[in-house]
Write a structure and sequence with these properties.
The chain has 142 residues and is mainly α. It has one domain. It contains seven helices and four strands, in the order H-E-H-E-E-H-E-H-H-H-H. Strands 1-4 form a two-stranded antiparallel sheet. Strands 2-3 form a two-stranded antiparallel sheet. The chain is globular and about 40 Å long.
Length: 142
């Protein structure tokens, strides 16, 4: 199984430099759709329902001081197997052309983020987890 840094490196290899927020959303959608298409998680790192949408804290700690990301000190793009690469490429084909704000707005309208944020005041910080089960249930229904 790949880790979030491997997935992020693969996204950066395919997309080039992108905003940190867009990287987070593309990682999230890669995880979500892999749970549907492969019936298992793409990586085991936790994703949380932050105020600006889904964020993987482990990845965030790697780029926290940067608005844009072109490379990371961790992860290897070639660590993904063919199935994992296929998932990420499909996600990039659909979501990769959209802005970070568009992706953030989209996640705010979808059940996994909304359910994880239940009971959290609008705009407040949260470290509530968006589970792979919640992702799979929602995205499988689409």
């Amino acid at each position: 199984m790949a880790n979030v840094f491997d997935v992020a490196q693969y996204i950066l290899k395919e997309q080039g430099q992108i905003s940190a927020m867009k990287l987070q959303k593309l990682v999230y959608y890669s995880q979500a759709w892999h749970t549907v298409w492969a019936d298992k998680a793409l990586f085991s790192n936790k994703i949380e329902a932050w105020k600006d949408g889904p964020v993987c804290p482990a990845l965030w700690r790697e780029h926290a001081s940067s608005f844009t990301v072109s490379s990371l000190s961790k992860g290897r793009a070639d660590a993904l197997n063919a199935r994992e690469k296929k998932t990420v490429k499909q996600v990039l084909k659909f979501y990769g052309k959209h802005s970070a704000q568009w992706l953030s707005d989209l996640t705010h309208a979808e059940d996994p983020w909304l359910r994880a944020r239940q009971g959290v005041r609008h705009g407040a910080a949260s470290n509530n987890e968006i589970t792979t089960r919640a992702m799979q249930e929602y995205y499988h229904s689409l």
